[in-house]
Amino acid sequence: MGRAGALSLYRLRPNKTLFMLCDVQEKFKPVMPLWSDLIENIKKLLAAGKIFNVPLVVTEQYPEKLGKTAAELDIKHACANIPKTKFSMIVPPVMNNIDDIFGGKPKSVVLFGVETHVCIEHTAFDLINNKVNVWLAADCCASRLNQDRDLALERLRDIGCIIATSESIIFNLLSDKNHKSFKDVAGLVKKTSRDVKLWRPTKAPATDKK
C-alpha cells in the first residue's frame, strides 16, 4: 500500500462510514464493570453519529434471553436492529441492510459494544477479511473482565484495526473547525468522556539481569 493509501485508513468520511453497535443489552448490566460509564460514552458517540448522519446498524444477541438494547440508548435512528445467535454481527440480514445503505460496503466501520473478546472480536475479524477499515471505539467497548477487553483490543490492533477513543473518532469525522456541525459537536464534547480504565499492563515488567 502506498503512503496515500495508508493515510486514508486514518480518515473517516461520514458518507463512507458505518456505525455498528453490538449487543449492549439489559441483561449485561449487572455483570459488566463500569456499565454507567460505558453507556455515557456510547450515548455521546451515537449523538455524534446523528449529527454527521452516519448510518447505524444495531444487533442484539439472543434477545429472548439477554433482553433488548439498553433503554438508556437512543437507537431510534438506526437503519436496522437485528437479532442474532452468531457471535459476529456479520449475518445475512445485517449484510443486506449494509448493501441497501451503501450499494455495497462502507469504506470504514466504527465498531463498539460488548463483549469485546467475543462478539466485537468476531465481527472485526469478518470485517477485516472483507477489506473494510475497522475502527474500535475502545471506551465504548466492554467485557465482564477488563483484562479480556484489553487483550482483545491488543489482538485487534495487531491485525490492523484502529483503536481510538470515542472523542478521537468524533473529531476525525469533524476534521475542520469550519465544518457546518462544529458548534453542535463542540457542545457534545464539552462534557468529558468517562474513564473506563483502559490499558492495564499485559506484559511482565523488565527485570535487571545479574
UniProtKB/TrEMBL annotation:
What the entry lists under PANTHER family is as follows: HYDROLASE, ISOCHORISMATASE DOMAIN-CONTAINING PROTEIN 1
- Bilayer-spanning residue ranges: none
**Highest taxon of the lineage:** Eukaryota
Q: What is this protein called?
A: Isochorismatase domain-containing protein 1
Please report the stretch or stretches of sequence annotated as the Isochorismatase-like domain.
18-167
The record's section on InterPro entries has:
Isochorismatase-like_dom, Isochorismatase-like_sf, Isochorismatase_domain
Its family remark reads: Belongs to the isochorismatase family.
